[in-house]
Each structure stands twice: as structure tokens, then as C-alpha cells.
Amino acid sequence: MSWGRADRHLKLFWRLIEKHEASYRTHLLELFQRRELAICDLRRQIHLLDEEYQTWFAPELARRRAEAVELRRKLEEIREQRRLREHADQLQRSLEGLQRAHENARNEIVALRSSLSWRVTRPLRWIYERIVGLKDAGDR
Amino acid sequence: MRARLAVVLQGVPGLQSLVARLEQLSRQSRRPDQILLLDSGGLAGQLSRLRDTAARFSLPAVEPVNAPLDAHPSVWRDIAMQSSEAEAVCFLEPGVLLRDRYFERALDAMTSKKIGFATSWWERVGPSGEPERVAVESCDLPALLARPDSVHRATLFSRAAWKKIRGFDTSVAAAEDYELCLRLLSEGWVGALVSDVLVRQKADRLSSYQRDLWRERYVPAMTAIFNKHRDLFEQETASVLLGREETLIWLADRYRPIVSRREAAVKELDALKQEIADLIRALREHGHDRVDWGDLRRTKPISPEWGYDRGKPIDRHYIEAFLEDNARDVRGRVLEIQEDDYSRRFGGGEVESVDVLDACATNPRANVIADLRQASALPGETYDCIILTQTIHVIDDMEAVARECYRLLKPGGKLLVTLPCLSRVCLEYGPDGDYWRVTEAGAKQLFSAAFPPYAIATRVYGNVLAGTAFTYGLCCDELTPGELDETDPYNPTLIGVSAIKPADVPKSKSAARRPAVQVETNSATHGIILAYHGVTPGPDDPHGLFIEPKVFAQQMAHLRAHYRPMSLPAILAAAQKRSLPPRAVAVTFDDGYRDALTTISPILVRNKIPATFFVTTSSLAQGSEHWWDLLARIFFSTDLPARELAVELGGETRRFPLSTRAEIGSAYWALHGFLVRSPLAERSEILRRLVAWSDIDSTPPLRQSMTGKEMKMLAARPGHTIGAHSVHHLALGHQTDETQQQEVMECKAALERLPVSVVAFAYPYGDFNDETVRLVRTAGFHMAVTCEERTVSPHPDPYRLPRLEVKPGSISDFKSWLRERSNKPSD
Fold this sequence. Notes:
The structure holds two protein chains of two kinds.
Chain A: H1 3-19, H2 21-26, H3 28-113, H4 116-120, H5 122-139
Chain B: E1 5-9, H1 15-26, E2 34-39, H2 47-56, E3 62-66, H3 73-83, E4 88-92, E5 96-98, H4 102-109, E6 115-125, E7 131-134, H5 141-146, E8 156-158, H6 159-164, H7 176-186, E9 190-202, H8 208-211, H9 215-228, H10 230-235, H11 237-285, H12 314-325, E10 332-337, H13 341-347, E11 351-358, E12 368-369, E13 383-389, H14 398-408, E14 409-420, H15 430-433, H16 440-447, E15 456-461, H17 464-472, H18 481-485, E16 494-500, E17 527-532, H19 549-562, E18 564-566, H20 568-576, E19 584-590, H21 595-607, E20 611-615, H22 627-636, E21 644-649, E22 652-657, H23 661-677, H24 680-693, H25 708-715, E23 720-724, H26 737-753, E24 760-762, H27 770-778, E25 783-785, E26 804-805, H28 811-822
Parallel strand pairs in B: 1-2, 1-4, 2-3, 6-9, 10-11, 10-13, 11-12, 13-14, 17-19, 17-26, 18-19, 19-20, 20-23, 24-25
Antiparallel strand pairs in B: 4-8, 5-9, 6-7, 6-8, 14-16, 15-16, 21-22
């Protein structure tokens, strides 16, 4: 109850008592007992709820939160491991592709160098290299 | 000159709490001039330590003030006031914390001789530790009538004022200090208020904080105060009602957020449970579990041989620990099974001879070939000690073994048994020969078939990790000592049982399950006398004395419908004339619990069942708690203050470990066994010490005996008669003739003074001898009942009438139990 409402309620109650004071006095014991009982019960309820929270809910929440954090961490770690594994697989695949391309190129070179045309044109390449070599020496 | 101040330390809350309060006093800027300790004798042994503590804190010496243990709180307060010489007195109870300047400021406020008390603003601190401030504008009469908590429990009282108004009022069950303040104000004294928070009251188990939450105590106390001061309350009708309305509004404002917090917690817990379930599912999808099973992800044990192939098996570690604990009882003539290794190892030179028993004649180490269920070749009372480790679970009839061991033991001899609670099936005997696994409760039940319950002590060993390791066949070296020795009573691996054959056993009310009930078969000429105790069950009922009220009502309806309920004198008269009607039954109640008046009697009257209530007369004025209930409350309803109890029993200091439930139970049964046979003075002294040692709540217990007035009311109801049950409930057969005479004669005289006419006597614990019978007859009783578990035969001895004790259980248990005993066809 907000303070304003509580205040209004108490003022209203006060007026009622003023107006019907004799009746309230006649039944005072009953009213007194009812209120004492309600106060005692409410206080006990508050105490028990508070105690329940401190002794059960708070530790249970802490335990569950910690468990959730741990499971989240575990799951994240597994997902990270999986991501890393996939990345590593990808790198492996790309490495294998490059290795294959490299091999193909090397094979191509070997095939070229063993071909008849390559062998026939060898003197021409020798003369060419000599001319180029002389030219380079003259330039220097 | 300033007034002299005395502080009274109240209650019997144990040394620790008293030292803490002395420390508080030492921090006060104005120290007390006198410190009084209200004690009923239990703290006498600790007084020197308290005095040393007080000296160390430069406080005045602690002065003990004797007060009766069971006196009303107001009487305690008055005794303290009378014993004090100071002008102002403060009662300091557990859970009350004083700010360092409290005494100084409160005494400063006592400026005039007209001031009857001085108090201050204060705080109430609940379980969360959040303080609730109680700050009133004044402490005059209207304020006090409106708010009873305007004065706190550490209020300073003027001794002169207290004297003038003739002390505290013993007619109010609680809030006696509030009542005194009201009376002081109404008689013209003034209350001084320090408008500063100087006192804190914590939710201490022993403090009045807790008592104020108990409606059965608080509301009648406030009603009594109202009735006493009706005029004052009526003069301030508006203040009285408005003050309470305001408190209710304030409490409702506190209650709502607490409820919301609870709802939020429930919601969050549900969400977390859901999230955890989702996370576990996601983990599974990734091929992982919540728990990393690692090497244990297997369906076969790592070692199939208990771990012998890896080192020492885990159960062996526990068996040896158990025998080590009981080594002093391995002495004299010992019987062991299959081999004598443990007798030699743990008994050493104390062992005179060892017989090795085996059912199999091929065992070369065995010198006795016998069946443990019935070793009739062995004479009774032969052994000082019998060792049965991991043996009887492979015998089909364990109870027969328990009974046979009882027979074979000499009086005072000890049986040492270990039983598996969690174990693989025995390799040697296989799935067809390994019969049982036993829990701690099961072990107690099993051996109480032969031994009195108080003579049985059990101890559990192991925990979930040790149990898992054991079933996988791992060995001791694969766990740390800490992991191995931690005990979890909810996950035990092994149970150790030690049971003594008493040298001379009284037939205790607590001999809950007797070896065999002798039932006469001719129901047409036999009757039954049922023995009940009360209908206030609870966790502190180790003897099983209390029946659920609902079940009791069903039992009485069953008796009314299918049996012939008769009064005790009528059943005796019919049996003497050999004219007992079929299914004749009489109902009796022992010990005179108050629930006889409040719960039992209306049920009996409704069913028109006559009954005899056997009552003790030691506290006819105000009722009291029976000693066994007090003992059970100390051990089973409170947190014990230490992990060990040292207590002097019969001139010998006995030490009881109290770390586990099993140890607590063992200590209880050992003490109970001793106290049952003790003389009154010794019993009272030991109990006083135990109360002082424990942190037991000083509030009146749930189970109390009736007052004389209540007995009169009960006797006036139709079909109800009162019987005598001695004065102090002593085991009469173990008392001197003089004590027996006093117990029998004074009980009868006290009841007749009420006046109540008594013709029947019940022997406490069913313990009596020929002298007791002679005294009962001489005293003018016409009959006496025992605890002998038999039906009533024709021509019974009127001073040895047998009874069948009704134990807690379901209504169907009761029906079949009674049917079996009366040979009545099933209904």
C-alpha cells in the first residue's frame, strides 16, 4: 500500500472509531485478538518466506546459475572446438588443392622439358642465351 | 552519582553464547557493576571459565543465581531482581546485540526516581539480515498500548519500581517485560526513551524473537495482558486499534516484496531448469554429456573382485575402521566367522580364545561347524564378543541370526556386525545366495528383534564417490583419505552395528519390538489390553510412542465396529470369571500426556470406548516434560553445540562422537539405556547437565504431562478412569525398596488428594519385582498392568496383567496386527 493510501486508510479507520467508539470498545477484545493474530501470522509468514529464500532459494539459484554458466561454457567450448576443427579442415582442403596444383604444374614442366620440340630447339635457346648474355655484358 | 547497573544473563543456552554476551558487555562504554547468571545447576561446571572470561574482559565476577529449571520466565526474572543489588537491571538474552553506548545512554536517561524503565529505538533482524527499525515517538502508556514492541528485550528496569509493583506477573505466558512496563506506567511511573537505535535483536533460535512468531504462545499471552489491563486498553481504544492497523499495513508492505521475490525466484529457477535442459540437449547433439563419465563410461566393473587385484577394497577400509572403534570390546572369548584374523588383530592380548565358526566343514580354520540361524550345538551365554563382518547378508533369515547371537552372548557381551548397504552381489555366493542390503534404519530394526533398542548402536560409512568406486572395483589408494572418510548418511556404503546384551534388562516401554509375541490362540477366552502413549508424533520420537491422531481415530472406530471395548476393571473381572466375551479389548494410555485431554478423549467419547489413563504425579501443579522426551528433544530436535559429548555416567566419563546422525542416535540410545535404570537424583543431574550443554530451546515443549486440574477434567468424562504410574517414572525393579514404596504410595496419595479415585497401577517401563507387586497390593490397588506382550488369559494374575503396545503405523497395519493377536477373521 502506498503511503498516501495507507494514510487515507488510517484516517478513515480513525473516523470510524471516533464515530462508533462505543461499539468498538464493546468488541475491543475480539478486534484486538484478531489483529494480534494477523500481526503474529504475518510476521511469521515473512520470517518463514525470508528464511526459505535464504536457506533454499538463494543457494539453489546460485547452484543453478553456476550450473547454467558451466554448461554454457562447455557448450561454447565445444562449438569453438567445432569451428576451429572446421576451419582447420578448410585450410587442409585448400592446402591439398594448392599441393595438387603445384604437382600438376611440376608435372607439366617435366613433360615439357622431356618433349622432342624442347630438345630440338635446345641449340637455338643456347645461342639466344649467349646473345642475350653478350648484350647484357655490353650494357654494363 | 550514577545508578548501579546489573546485567542478568538468562536461560541455559550454552557456554559459547554466554561468552559472546560477556564480550558484548566488555565493549560497553558504561560497563555493568554486577553480572548475574541465572542457572538451574547445569552451568556449575562452567562457572570458573565464565569467571575467567569476565576477568579477561575486566568485567565484574559472574555471580550464579539458582533458579528452578522448569520455572516460569517471570519467576526467573523475579529471582534475578531479588538477587541483584543494583538500581537498574537489564536482562540480556541470546540474539540481542547492544550498541557500545547503550548502557551509558539508557542510564543517563534515568534521570529521575519516577522513571520505572529506560529503553531505546531498536532493530529486528530477520534471516536475510535486513534490519526492521522500531522507532516510536515516546514510550508513554498510549504508545505502549498501541505498540507492544515499543520496548525491547534489553530494556533497563528500575529495581525500586519493580519492588513497588510486586514483580513480574507469572500469569502471562510471554511478554512479561511488556506487561511490567504497562503496569509501571499505569501506576504512575515514567518510561524513558533514547531516540537512537542502540539495540538489535537477531532471529536467534533461543531468543524471544522466535517466540513472538508462535501464535499459540503469543496471542494467548497478549490476550491475558489485555484482560488484566482491560480498562487501560478500553480507555485507549482508538490508539490500540490504530497502532495495530498501522503495524499490519507496515507488515503487508514488507510481505508483498518478499512474496514477489519468491515468485521471481520460482520463475528464474524454472527458466534456469529449462535453460539447463536445453543446454544438455545441445551438448548431446554435439556428442557430449552433462557429466564427463571418462573411464567410468562402462557397464562392467573395472575390477570384478572388489578391487583386491588393485589394492585394499574400499569396504575393508570401513570394516577395519569400525572394528578399530570397537577394539576394546574384542576381548575374552570371541566368536568369529571363517577365520580369526580380526579377533587377533583388534583384540590382541585381551582375547582369551577364539572360536571360528563356519557352516562348511571343509574350512580347516573352523573349529565350530554350525548354522548361525540355529547353532544349538553351542551353549547359550558363551561369548564375550561375536564378530560378523559382511556375513549375515548371505543368510536368508537375518533375524534368526540376530536372536541366535543374542543367545550366544554372555550378559554384557557385545555383537559387532558390518553389513553392506551398497555393494555388488557377492562373488562367492552369487545371485542366488546373496540375499540382503541393509540401511541404517533397517539394521536397527533387524537387531531390535533380539536386543533392546537402547543397546544397539549403528554407524554408517561411505559416500557417493566411495560407493561408486567400490562398485566399480576400485581400491582405497585410488581415492584420497578425505574422499574415503567423508560420511554421507544418505549414501552409505557400509553399516556397522554394535549391540550389547544387557546384563539385566528392564522391560522398557521402549522395547519397541520384542523377540516374539506370545499369543494365546483361544480367542473366545482371551482378551487384549492395548497400551498407548500419545498422539503427538514428531521426528523426536525414537521409541515410536506416538500415533498419528487421524490413525488413532480410525483405530478407535475399528475397535468400536469389530471388537468389544471394555474397561480395564471389567476385562479383569470377566477374565477372572472365565467369561470374557469374544474380541474383548481394553484401552490404556501411559504417562499422562496432555493430548489425552485435548485429542484422545474426544475420540474415545465419540466412539464410546472406556479407557484408563496412567499418570505420573511429579508435576501436578503445572505439568512438565517427561525426561525421555527432553532427552530426545536435545538429540533430535536441535542442532547440537559440539561434535562430541563427554558425560559422566556411573562415575565413568563417557565420550560420544556426534558428527553423524548415526553417532547422535548411538549417543541417545546409550544415554537412554543408562537413565532408564538410574535413581532419580542421578537422572535429574545428568539431564540438567545435558540441558546446559545443549542449545535446547527454552520454550515449552510440544509434549507435556497433564496438570492435576486437567486430570480431574479427564476423569470426569464418561468412561475415563485415572490410574497410577508412580511419581517420577522410575524403573521400580531397579530401585531400593524404600524408593519403590515412596513412588507407589505417594503417587496414589497425590491422585486421591485431587481427588481422583485410582484402582489400577502401571509399572513404569514394565519394570518391577516381587517387592513392587507386594507394595502395589498393600497400597490398595486392585490391579496392575505390565509391558509383557501377551493376551489376557483366563484367571490372570491381577497384578501382572499383560498388555500389547500399539506402535505407529497405518490403519491397515493395525487391523492386521490386532487380527493376528486376537485370531479374528478378516473384515
